[in-house]
# Entry
Amino acid sequence: MTIEDLVKIKKFLKLNEKEINRRLEEERKRIPKVTARGYLGLRIKRFETSECGLIKYLAQHNPELLTEALDKYSHYAGDEAKAEIIENMTQHYIFELLLLEKEKKKKR
# Structure
């Protein structure tokens, strides 16, 4: 995932810097020191399904349609289901940020 993709997803999720930093710190504490990249790769792999791919695509390229779909879905499956989708997107976003951070450090 590129920085541009993450910026679009961040905009869709309406995350503020304080929330991002809090969640980044939480996840940094959970990452094993020896195999951080492998750990993050495994955590991100969880989101490599066709459904997640569609959701990421819509968040990046048509956030209005995704918002509309999630609103309609919550009427069908309940607000908890919509909240779970948003939380999963947020987790994926945080893991991708951490992976980019690790890759930048590796290049230095």
